[in-house]
Structures are given as C-alpha cells and as structure tokens.
Write a structure and sequence with these properties.
The complex is a heterodimer of chains A (about 110) and B (about 110). Chain A is mainly β and about 110 residues long. Helices cover about 0% and strands about 60% of the residues of chain A. In chain B, strands 2, 4, 5, 6, 9, 10 and 11 form a seven-stranded mixed β-sheet that branches. Chain B has a four-stranded antiparallel β-sheet with strand order 1-3-8-7, with no helix packed on it. The chains are: A mainly beta (about 110), B mainly beta (about 110). At the A-B interface, strand 5, strand 9 and strand 10 of A face strand 4 and strand 5 of B.
C-alpha cells in the first residue's frame, strides 16, 4: 500500500520567515495531494491541495509543489505569522477499485515565534 | 448546514465493552470515512464508504465494523474495546471518492479504554 513520509517532525521559525515541509510517497499511481492544518484540540482542515497533472499551486502565502518523478511534494509558507502555528499533515490519495483512500504523513508541528 | 457531526465528544469504556460512534453529514456527500489519531501520529484510515451500501477496509480495520445504510450516516462500531483503541476518532466526508475531493472532518470523539 501507499506510504507517506513527512519531514521535519518539528519546525520552529521566526515570524516573517518562510517554512517548508516536505513529503515523499511510495506509490506512483497516487494522484491527489492535500495538506491539512490542525490546531490544538481541533479538527484537521484543508489548506491547499494539488492534483498529479499540476506541478505547482499557490494561494496567497501558501504554495505546494509536486515532483512526480521523484515522488515528493512540499508545502511552502511565506511571511509566517503566529497564527500559522499548528500541526500540518500531508496526504496522498490512490484510487482503488472500491474508491480512493488517503494516506497521511505523521505531521509537522510548526511553531512561529513572534 | 451543520456539516459533519459526531457523537459523543468524549467516552470512557472498560475493556470488553462495545459501543457505536455516530457520524452524520448533511452535505449530501457520497464518500465518508473514519480515521483514528494517536499522539505523534498522523491520521490512519479505519474504514471508508463510497456510497450507501458500500464499505471497505482502510489501514487499521481490525476491531471495528461499519455500515452505510443511508447517505447521511456512517456509524463506527467497536466490537470489544481494548486499551489499544484509546484514541481520537475523526469522521470525514467528501463530495466524491472517485476522484477524491476535499474531505471535511467532524469535531472528533475522544475515546479512552481502561
């Protein structure tokens, strides 16, 4: 089955700096790569996603890049703010006969220091 | 719209007891899924459903049963609770599973098995 590895597990940056989180996946048939943000005690919420036919997608301060050949994708957050502090999860989706399944990475705890 | 709702929010069980975690969505989503989240780990898929009457196993299905008799509801049954099932359980729904779209998560159920 699909395996998703996420690095780093913790990341601490100063406010205004950029943050980059990287994920690799194992199954070349994966075709959908979402990123979720989870604040303490809350539910995960989608912040950005990318499909396998696109190499890069941007939404204001957040961008995701996908390298299908190397089977890795990254989340980039620019001009970080204290409210960006949270756990971020990457995921990869593979289509199976009975539907698609998401496999999640183990998460990155991002801390933005004011 | 209430979105995805889960009951109960908290539950304590004794080893060997059974119970059902409830999940409902009012967005007419075809795809529903159950995840468990353990400290320091990502979300692991337990079971999923691409429509009423159709369910399939995820990564960690042992000890859990599901059914999908209506589009709106997707209950998760713990057959004989074990301490290893202590976790936070999230239900999620999506417009479709083929292809997969954004998953909306419920608020979670925190389960402790003693």
């Amino acid at each position: 089955g699909e395996n998703v590895e996420q690095h780093p597990s913790t990341l601490s940056v100063q406010e205004g700096d950029s943050a980059v989180i990287k994920c690799t996946y194992s199954d070349s048939a994966s075709n959908y790569f979402p990123w979720y943000k989870q604040e303490l005690g809350k539910r995960p919420q989608l912040i950005i996603d990318i499909r396998s036919n696109v190499g890069e997608k941007k939404d204001q301060r957040i961008a995701v890049t996908l390298n299908k050949t190397a089977k890795h994708f990254s989340l980039h957050i620019t001009e970080t703010q204290p409210e960006d502090s949270a756990v971020y999860f990457c995921a990869a989706s593979i289509r199976e006969t009975s539907g698609s399944r998401l496999t999640f990475g183990e998460g990155t705890q991002l801390t933005v220091n004011p | 719209n209430a979105g995805v709702t889960q009951t109960p929010k908290f539950q304590v069980l004794k080893t060997g007891q059974s119970m059902t975690l409830q999940c409902a969505q009012d967005m007419n989503h075809e795809y529903m899924s159950w995840y468990r989240q353990d400290p320091g780990m990502g979300l692991r898929l337990i079971h999923y459903s691409v429509g009423a009457g159709i369910t399939d196993q995820g990564e960690v299905p042992n000890g859990y049963n599901v059914s999908r008799s209506t589009t709106e509801d997707f209950p998760l049954r713990l057959l004989s609770a074990a301490p290893s099932q202590t976790s936070v359980y999230f239900c999620a729904s999506s417009y479709s599973g083929v292809p997969v779209y954004e998953q909306y998560f419920g608020p979670g159920t925190r389960l402790t098995v003693t």
